[in-house]
Design goal:
164 residues, mainly alpha
Length: 164
């Protein structure tokens, strides 16, 4: 799948997640029956496989972070594959070592570092460890248009913007 298809798939899954009603347990059961958790595994795998592309890397890292930071009944993401996470972190380490990141990825990584961020895997990658030490402020305003069609990552970053 290409990035546009992955974004559409994510947004479709996320719309299912936010439409669910009931208790936390009920939502988890519904997500499981709808196959949302499994589909997110596949999406993360695709991003990991395409992580030589900066955009795929950003989205995969976001999924990795949000899965550890937010309850799975709110995101639809659960028990993500360690091999995919490892591939993403390895790609990130490579990009950092070659100075192939951009400002957006840098501030995203800085933001994620305030929370749990694949600590068990990250410890093996020196460039990632160093990057996580950097403190880069979020932009004053995140361009809503820039975050369009970027899957759940775009939804999340746009939710931090003040209402326009």
């Amino acid at each position: 799948m290409n990035l546009k298809e992955l974004s559409s798939k994510e947004l479709s899954l996320y719309s299912k997640v936010i439409s669910l009603k009931g208790t936390i347990e009920s939502k988890i059961n519904q997500l499981d029956k709808l196959g949302v958790f499994d589909e997110y595994q596949k999406i993360l795998h695709e991003y990991a496989e395409q992580s030589d592309q900066l955009e795929a890397l950003k989205r995969g890292l976001f999924i990795t972070w949000i899965a550890a930071s937010e309850p799975h009944f709110l995101t639809g993401i659960s028990n993500i594959d360690k091999n995919s996470i490892e591939k993403l972190i390895e790609s990130l380490n490579d990009k950092i070592s070659k100075k192939e990141t951009d400002y957006e990825l840098d501030w995203m990584i800085s933001y994620y570092s305030k929370f749990y961020f694949a600590d068990d895997i990250v410890s093996k990658y020196p460039y990632v460890l160093k990057k996580l030490q950097e403190k880069i402020k979020l932009p004053n305003k995140i361009d809503k248009h820039e975050m369009t069609d970027r899957g759940q990552m775009g939804v999340y970053w746009n939710s931090l913007n003040e209402s326009d």
